[in-house]
Amino acid sequence: MAVDSLVSQTDMFSHMRIINGMGISLCLSRLLIFVSRFIQHPSKNKISYIHSGWMLIVFLWIIQFWWDYLFESSGKTYDIYLYVLELFYVFGLFFICVTLTPDDVKEYGDYESYFFSRKKWLFSLFIFINFVQSIEGIREAYLKSDFSDMKLELWLLLSSTIVILVAMNIKRKRFQYYMIGLLILLILLDFFVLTYLMPD
């Protein structure tokens, strides 16, 4: 007998909400504990605006993921594949949080130097969670036989991956500031559209 037939959709949603909630809690606690260090030891830890900007972006991604999950999950049909994809997404977010919040940066000098030394790892994780999210969208479009949405998801996956790969290899600080500002604007715009302009 298939696993899907043994677990109701309500039970599956409740289970996923608990699992995702635990993952999101770990991500948020990691970020908040890290930020608290600057309050506890303001002279010891020098703030990097680039590093802080990326932390803000990841924080907004986490909030956005949790909000989107609550907003969209009622229309999802859960099975083992969607279950695994959502777990991988949360795992990816957590690894991003851990990468952004090192326990010690003495060998790097400061947080800005640390960020640029780990930038390729960090951007590779961005590609990973973007890939997982796109696969979920492609799979959902396939199940609905909506091939135009599948093509759109594939195009978005390809173009966003190319953009991340290009950004990964640009070392100019000014570019990082522009990218941080643009991403924050896009996240807030997406949140506004989803919250106020999408039909009930």
From TrEMBL:
Keyword Transmembrane helix found: yes
Membrane-spanning residues: 12-35, 47-68, 80-100, 121-142, 154-170, 177-198
Keywords: Membrane, Transmembrane, Transmembrane helix
Protein name per UniProt: Low temperature requirement protein A
Record organism: Pseudochrobactrum kiredjianiae
